[in-house]
Amino acid sequence: MDLTRLDATHHVLDLGCGNGMIAEYLSDRTGAHIVGIDFIEEAIEHAQVRTARKRNRLEFEVGDMALLDFGAESFDLVLAIDALYFTDLEQTVKEIRRVARPGGILAAFYSYGRLPGEPLESFSELVLRPEGTPLAHVLNKAGLPYRTWDYTQADYLHARHKRQIAKALKPLFEAEGNLFLYENHAGEAAGVMEAIEARAHSRYLYLVNL
Ligand SMILES: C[S@@+](CC[C@H](N)C(=O)[O-])C[C@H]1O[C@@H](n2cnc3c(N)ncnc32)[C@H](O)[C@@H]1O
Prior knowledge:
The protein is of the alpha/beta class and about 210 residues long.
């Protein structure tokens, strides 16, 4: 928010917005007009119902980020928070460029690391550098300049906190018959912590000039 200096004049597209909580938080704090898209219909429905009274500055639509249903030069800022892992990156970056106004920005939080089961010996630490990730390769190929901020340590602390909270809530998950949710959250957090301890995981914010 500080880096992009969002305000009420900005039009923002949030790619892979999930249930729209982050888009809502950002719009509440800054007044920015934000459109969130996700291909999970249920998540979009939740977002639409929850924010019905904020429709003048918050909209949510079902959509595929690799095939954006918006006109050219519609947005000042495109957000992609942990959303660029499950899409055709090259095609998505092409679409982001099309819908962003000249001089617009892509802000992407992006983690990368050793794939599950990949032997540590054959894993190259070079891919953990900000210029070594798959996202960096696609941005370079497209000739898009970017700056990065390293959030790996923050990711570690976040994972540790998440694991503590999951443990504290375990009895509630169990009482609801949702122990698998506890296992998912705690397992994911432990996985991130282990990977960072083994120097096999990194996380960056990419700010890309479009
Ligand atoms: C890890 S979640 C992140 C959600 C949210 N940005 C956040 O940070 O809380 C990734 C989201 O991207 C969405 N997604 C993945 N690929 C997509 C695509 N091609 N088009 C639209 N949404 C996509 C998923 O449905 C999911 O909600």
